[in-house]
Structure formats: structure tokens, C-alpha cells
């Protein structure tokens, strides 16, 4: 399921930056429980929030969706 | 704005296939007025619907977001 794959992808990328879920969510001005549920694949996240995450990770949307 | 950029992107790709909005929306089981508003950049589309569109275009999400 795409929501699961996306959650796994952003978790790997965030861990690669060595930042906690809480710090990352804070840095992109996103509720931390909402962000955690996105990583868990439980949210049908919107394109605006996907963009927010890409910006927080410092990558393009193309890079974010690499392999997906 | 990402919704505008995404709309322009899918419009170009759909036109490349030579299919009308109506036919394309029908092929992916999406309401045609909803699909038209996505192409116009008026919708904060969700990842599940983004995936539906990628599948309809016959490309990966990575390809769909190329350059975005």
C-alpha cells in the first residue's frame, strides 16, 4: 500500500539525517502525532504535506519518490 | 504552488497519451469534475489518488514527480 511505502521511505530518510520524529515534525511545523501516523502508513497524506516533508528533508519530490 | 505544478504535470502527461480528461478520469475510476479540478491545481490531492493517476498514466511515482 502506498501509504505504508511512503511512511517507510520518509522514516529511512529522516533517520539518515539523525533527527527524531519529534524534532523533524517541529522543524516542518507539523503536529508530531500526525507526523508519526504518516510514518506508520496510517494517513492518506495530501500533496501539500508531502511537499512540506520533502522541504524538511531538503530534497525534491522526485527524490522523495525515488523507487516508489 | 505544488498543486498547480502537479496539475500542469499530469495535464502534459495525459495529453502525451492523447486521451481526453473525461476518458482518462473514467479509466482510473475517478470523478471527471474532480480530476479536472486536480489538473487546474485546485485540489490538495492525496497520495492514494496520486498513485491512481500514476497507474493510469502507466508510470511510477518517481517518474510522475520528475522535475518537481
TrEMBL record, chains A, B:
InterPro entries: Cro/C1-type_HTH, Lambda_DNA-bd_dom_sf, TransReg_Diox_bact_type
Record keywords, A-Z: DNA-binding, Transcription, Transcription regulation
Coiled-coil regions listed: none
GO molecular function: DNA binding; DNA-binding transcription factor activity
Domain of life from the UniProt record: Bacteria
Residue stretches making up the HTH cro/C1-type domain: 10-64
CDD domains cross-referenced by the UniProt entry: HTH_XRE
Key word DNA-binding present: yes
Pfam family, one: HTH_3
GO cellular component: cytosol
Protein name, entry field: Transcriptional regulator, XRE family
Organism: Lacrimispora saccharolytica (strain ATCC 35040 / DSM 2544 / NRCC 2533 / WM1) (Clostridium saccharolyticum)
